[in-house]
Amino acid sequence: MSWMFLAHLIEWWIKPEYLWLKTISFFIFDPIGASGFLFISGVSITLSYRNRLYKVEEYKNMSYSRIKISYFLRAFFLLVIAIIYNTAIALTKNQLSWIWTWFVLLTAAFSLLLTWPLFKVSKLTRILIGVIIWFISQYLYLLLSPYQDQLNLQGILYHIFYNNYSLDPLLNFFSFFLFGTVVGDIMNDIYNTKNPELKRKQLKKKMLIPISLISLGLISFGVLFNFPSFLSRSSLSWLFYAIGINLLLLTIFIILEEYNIFKSKKSYRVFFYFSYYSFTVYLGHNFLYFIFYKKLDLVTIWIAVVLTFIVFSLVLRQMYKIWGWKASLKAVLGKMSSKLAYKIEENKKR
User: Fold this and answer.
1) Which candidate, 284, 245, 270, places its Cα nearest to that of 320?
2) Which of 64, 84, 55 is closest to 282 using CA atoms?
3) Could you tell me if 251 and 212 are in contact, meaning their C-beta atoms sit under 8 angstroms apart?
4) Torsions phi, psi of 221, nearest 5?
5) Cα separation, 140 vs 100, whole angstroms
6) To 10 degrees, what angle do helices 64-93 and 329-349 make?
7) Which of 157, 266, 272, 276 has the highest count of CB atoms within 10 angstroms of its CB?
8) Which helix (H) or strand (E) holds 249?
9) What's the half-sphere exposure (Cβ side, CA atoms, 13 Å) at 59?
10) What is the distance between the alpha carbons of residues 245 and 226, in angstroms, rounded to a whole number?
């Protein structure tokens, strides 16, 4: 979320003659943008799902059907919000075709919908599915891209699958979510170990060492395979490179936390607010578009971005103190889905 915030402000506010700054920053940080967001979302939703399954076993007032209904309601609500967001963008641009555009909210909603049946398959199968989807996507894009903006079957299919290819099309970015569910399951198995010493050993053996090696291998493969296309967003090289970067960063952060290299609760409190209010920030920060549109140079852009980040952090902190979860779109969707699922299940029983 922090990178998205920074990237958009640079894109919106920098003068046209300095757009090379946007290009360079995207080359460096874009692998942790939408791909990282969907990857971590996959980790998070898996931990939440597995935790709810444990509650089914422990409490009689919780059922598998309610978990399922709640899950799909959450995905549906997110899909509705995504379409509303896309519609607002389309009306602003006066291009109705943008109503169906793969901004990350739309991709996240469909990723949720598609992932539910895949929770039941093995981790290896999910990995294979994710990789196969990437290869199919690359072939399909080459097949359909010549028909972009054409009113024929191929043009319609291109619009459905790849509009806009520079954003977060599902066929390229769903796999990040799916790989996140695999990591989430690994973490779930490890962190449910009650013995702290055994947990630390399992963490090192089953996650830190293998994922570190895998991430370095993926980064190397992405860089060397068809060099330098790993700098081109959504190319096959970039996809492998990006998931390698995400896995490596996650491993580093877990090491920093688990081995008490820094006091986690104090050290990243600011980033907690951006995470807790992630959807709220995503929707709300768009209003910053108009403040310094194409007006800032190489010096003033950084001053403006840093000050805006600080102000946003303070606002989010006050929101947390005053409204708490009520201002978090993510939390509201979760609570709405759970309550509605409960009512639906109660009505079925009657």
Assistant:
1) 270
2) 84
3) yes
4) -60, -45
5) 19
6) 130
7) 276
8) helix 236-258
9) 11
10) 18
Cβ partners under 8 Å of residue 253, min gap 6: none
Half-sphere exposure of 279 (CA within 13 A, CB side): 22
277 vs 75: CA distance, rounded Å: 17
Token pair 């509705």: residue: 80
The answer to whether the pTM exceeds 0.85 is: yes
Q: If we measure between CA atoms, which residue out of 344, 288, 346, 289 comes closest to residue 315? A: 288
pLDDT (tens digit per residue) in 144-200: 999 998 999 999 999 999 998 989 999 999 999 999 999 999 999 998 888 888 888
Structure tokens at 346: 């109660």
Nearest one of 178, 154, 219 to 41, comparing CA atoms: 178
The Cα 42–Cα 111 span in angstroms is: 9
CB atoms under 10 Å from CB of 271, counted, come to 12
pLDDT tens digit sequence for 144-158: 999 998 999 999 999
Q: How far is CA 180 from CA 27, 112, 171, in A?
A: 23, 12, 15
CA atoms within 13 A on the CB side of 223: 10
How many whole angstroms separate alpha carbon 126 and alpha carbon 132?
A: 10
Angle (CA) 52 67 81, round 5°? 110
Q: 């081995």: which residue's tokens?
A: 259
